[in-house]
Amino acid sequence: MWKELNIGSNRVVNASGVIRVMGQDQVKLELDDDGQLLLTMDLYDADQTHVGKLRRNAWAFHSLDFEITTNPSSLQLAHGDSGRLVAIAEVVDRDHLVVSHADFHAVNGERIIVTPDALRIGTRLTMAENTFVGTSSMLIIDEKGFSIG
Predict the structure, then answer these.
(1) Regarding beta strands 85-93 and 58-62, do their DSSP bridges make them parallel or antiparallel, or are they unpaired?
(2) Beta bridge partners of 79
(3) Which of 149, 132, 141 is closest to 13 using CA atoms?
(4) What pLDDT, in 10s, does the model give residues 37-59?
(5) Residue whose C-alpha is closest to residue 8's, from 144, 54, 134, 19
(6) What is the distance between the alpha carbons of residues 144 and 136, in angstroms, rounded to a whole number?
(7) Among 59, 60, 88, 125, which one has the highest count of C-beta atoms within 10 angstroms of its own C-beta?
(8) What does the H/E/C string look like for 101-142?
(9) Spatial distance between the Cα atoms of 50 and 111, rounded to a whole number of angstroms
(10) How far apart are the two ends of the chain, measured CA to CA in Å?
(11) Which residues contact 33 (CB under 8 A, 6 or more apart)?
């Protein structure tokens, strides 16, 4: 569990590190016992095709060229051909994680973008400088918007 998780300029207190998108646990960020940041993520394209599954920094499968770069306290996932970033995350300390950049598609093809300034869900919602307090909560992105659950 993360005492603080920053997604762009948004702050979530007491977050599990799981991001559920359209009913599916699409992203999970965790630390192993050695302090290595681990990413589990399902990757889709704009046409809703499942193009990759990353499990704790190891590929279960991928049909597109992706590259993951890790060191114990950070990771970067990018498209190999274009270099376009899919995600950048960094551990500030054992209980604090920052996701400064992300650009990926949900299972329904909707694009989700994180910049240092905001979280954007398609063209329907932009969130900036919010603080949410949960209890070991996951972040939920669905057709209604964004919530803690």
Answers:
(1) unpaired
(2) 66
(3) 132
(4) 999 999 999 999 999 999 999 99
(5) 19
(6) 21
(7) 88
(8) EEEEECCCCCEEEECCCCEEECCCEEECCCEEEEEEEEEEEE
(9) 14
(10) 14
(11) none
pTM: 0.89
Count of residues making up the chain: 149
State the Rg of the chain over Cα.
14
CB-based contact 38:31 (threshold 8 Å) = yes
Amino acid at 130: N
What is the spatial distance between Cα 120 and Cα 125, in angstroms, rounded to a whole number?
A: 6
Tokens of 143: 């057709």
Q: How far is CA 69 from CA 39, 88, 89, 147, in A?
A: 11, 10, 11, 30
Per-residue pLDDT tens digits for 69-118: 998 889 999 988 888 899 999 999 989 999 999 999 999 999 999 999 99
